[in-house]
């Protein structure tokens, strides 16, 4: 806890202070195309807004006069320790935001002792990311290719490179209606900014014997969205890897139940940061019913709109085992590379530790719904 108190009076105003200010800084630096791609949501951005709004529907009901001189925010997932219940969400194409790409982000995650989830569409390959931060806990997010062998190959490469879980994202059967990107005529996919994992894949190389820009682009666009993927397909992945499989993009309790029945190892309650189905329920609002259905069978994670220590606390109180943050750390990357990501993480940590202490809890497992009151 030293960290929290030694910062009293520290001049930190030269840096952005989490969330909104990092977003402004990133906007100053990035061209309209990449910034719009990062910030915007689908449709009228109703879900994007509701992801934030949902957090203000709860207030914390703190307890006092408890010994909070030692606050321990750590948790364990799949036997791996993390220093707080926060992870870096899979965000593709980081090369469009900073020349350090995902390497800056994974090193910041390693330094902070929190897991990094690498996207399928990273700008550095999954092997390069792993080698840059061997000490980091890393998970690999899989976009299921239409070609099953390619799907299996990526999962196997991730396992070999030391990733500790496969996160299958299931809310992107088709790309959402991203109006800002259409207005800007912008897609990092078309620019091949997320092609590294494909170009380096032996199955992909067989599929696309001539790795010209045009052929690669065409093959990726052909493979990345898979509208006829169904539950049964997940069983195929189960046979390909021994790693835990995490299903990301669940909002309905019945889908959560189905995932567990198929032997999946965790769930991420997520609407893809409001970038896919607009008007989909806010993640935080979907969380309680899913927690109730899952009933402790597997870990339940959530993402969407987490911006502060209080937000993390509220998600944990509603039953999440951990949250993921997406845009905030990428704003940090855009504005300051690895150092920017570290700053975002450490400010969030400070705020989270203080939220624990001032709410009267000293460790994560003691946080429950009794610390919240709905407005
Ligand atoms: C994403 N997200 C995402 N998810 C995923 O499974 N694979 C991916 O490649 C990406 N790529 C991606 C790019 C960008 C620019 C953003 C903003 C998001 C979704 C991400 O993992 C996460 O679900 C949301 O970002 C969480 O919401 P917040 O924290 O951004 O509000």
UniProtKB/TrEMBL annotation:
Cross-referenced PROSITE patterns: FMN_HYDROXY_ACID_DH_1, FMN_HYDROXY_ACID_DH_2
Key word Oxidoreductase present: yes
Signal peptide limits: none
Cofactor names: FMN
Entry keyword annotation includes Nucleotidyltransferase: no
Enzymatic reactions: (S)-lactate + O2 = pyruvate + H2O2
Entries under Pfam families matching the protein: FMN_dh
InterPro entries the record matches: Aldolase_TIM, Alpha-hydoxy_acid_DH_FMN, FMN-dep_DH, FMN_HAD, FMN_hydac_DH_AS
UniProt keyword list: Oxidoreductase
Domain FMN hydroxy acid dehydrogenase: start-end pairs: 11-375
Family to which this protein belongs: Belongs to the FMN-dependent alpha-hydroxy acid dehydrogenase family.
Protein's UniProt name: L-lactate oxidase
């Amino acid at each position: 806890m030293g960290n929290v108190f030694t910062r009293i009076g520290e001049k930190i105003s030269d840096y952005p202070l989490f969330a909104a200010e990092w977003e402004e800084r990133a906007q100053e630096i990035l061209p309209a195309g990449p910034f719009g791609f990062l910030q915007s949501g689908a449709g009228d951005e109703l879900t994007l807004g509701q992801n934030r709004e949902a957090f203000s529907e709860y207030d914390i009901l703190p307890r006092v006069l408890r010994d909070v001189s030692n606050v321990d925010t750590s948790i364990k997932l799949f036997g791996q320790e993390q220093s707080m219940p926060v992870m870096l969400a899979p965000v593709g194409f980081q090369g469009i935001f900073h020349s350090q790409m995902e390497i800056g982000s994974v090193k910041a995650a390693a330094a902070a002792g929190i897991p990094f989830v690498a996207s399928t569409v990273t700008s550095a390959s999954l092997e390069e990311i792993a080698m840059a931060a061997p000490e980091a806990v890393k998970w690999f997010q899989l976009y299921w290719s239409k070609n099953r062998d390619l799907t299996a190959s990526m999962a196997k490469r991730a396992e070999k490179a030391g990733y500790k879980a496969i996160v299958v994202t299931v809310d992107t059967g088709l790309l959402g209606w991203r109006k800002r990107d259409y207005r800007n005529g912008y897609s990092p996919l078309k620019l091949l900014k997320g092609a590294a994992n494909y170009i380096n894949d032996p199955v992909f190389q067989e599929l696309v014997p001539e790795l010209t820009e045009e052929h690669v682009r065409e093959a990726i666009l052909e493979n990345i969205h898979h509208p006829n993927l169904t539950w049964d397909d997940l069983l195929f992945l189960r046979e390909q890897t021994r790693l835990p499989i995490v299903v990301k993009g669940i909002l309905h309790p019945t889908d959560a139940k189905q995932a567990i029945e198929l032997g999946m190892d965790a769930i991420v309650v997520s609407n893809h940061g409001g970038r896919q189905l607009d008007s989909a329920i806010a993640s935080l609002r979907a969380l309680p019913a899913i927690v109730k259905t899952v009933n402790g069978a597997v870990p339940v994670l959530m993402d969407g709109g987490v911006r502060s220590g209080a937000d993390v606390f509220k998600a944990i109180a509603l039953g999440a085992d951990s949250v993921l943050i997406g845009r905030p750390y990428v704003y940090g990357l855009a504005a300051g590379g690895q150092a920017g990501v570290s700053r975002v993480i450490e400010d969030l940590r400070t705020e989270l530790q203080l939220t624990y202490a001032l709410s009267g809890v000293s460790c994560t497992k003691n946080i429950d719904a009794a610390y919240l009151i709905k407005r």
